Predict the structure of ABC transporter ATP-binding protein.
Amino acid sequence: MNTTTPALEIVDATLELGDGDSRVRALDAVSLTVQPGEFVAIVGPSGSGKSSLLAVAGALSHPDSGSVRVHGTDLATLSKGAAARFRLAHIGFVFQSGNLLPALTAADQLRLASRLAGSRRVDPAAVLDSVGMAHRAKHRPGHLSGGERQRVGIARALVNDPSLLLVDEPTAALDRRRSHEVVQLLADRARDANVAVVMVTHDHDVLEHCDRVLEMVDGSLTGLAHAARRMDSAPPR
Ligand SMILES: Nc1ncnc2c1ncn2[C@@H]1O[C@H](COP(=O)(O)OP(=O)(O)OP(=O)(O)O)[C@@H](O)[C@H]1O
């Protein structure tokens, strides 16, 4: 893996949603570069475009103008099928409540994700262990706490060894202590596995774990003054 290639490079992305009078500029000339191993948080008011940013970064939607590159690949060059394969191979998604399948044990959530991607890169049991969930491998989501579900969700997103992890409100259902644990886990994974993490959050309490905090307002992204976790290795841009 060439570590000088940014994990995510969005240049001047503009995205309009809706029709006629309800047309909204969800992204307005947004540029964002995230390096491997860097943990970036995006904060901002409801409706400011944060989810839209994750959607274009994850090849779930395409900007009307501008470009999005993930680990050097221009997402606009991929067909729908190729984009789906690319997502499975290179991008991990973590959602609010873990988004686990109710019928599957923690271990099977990871095995399924690994099989879907045709991936043998990482041992699912080892990934579950790395998020401190080996002892709950045989539990179904209904028998896990909110924080444990979120850990399994993170492990599932990591099982295909992604270059980029896109995380949407991971602490929404968690108390303060568990919120810190989960975001600390994301920070550790960014550093240890050299994964770029982009996390959307309303939870200002957990921003201390991030390298950079950006604010989205009316579809535009701006930097926030913030005491970063690893200023020496990842200076704010
Ligand atoms: N499918 C859609 N059609 C029309 N407008 C949309 C659509 N999806 C989102 N929007 C609008 O685009 C803008 C950005 O929405 P987005 O979901 O990206 O914001 P957000 O910052 O993630 O909000 P929240 O914090 O509430 O999740 C909002 O004004 C929203 O109303």
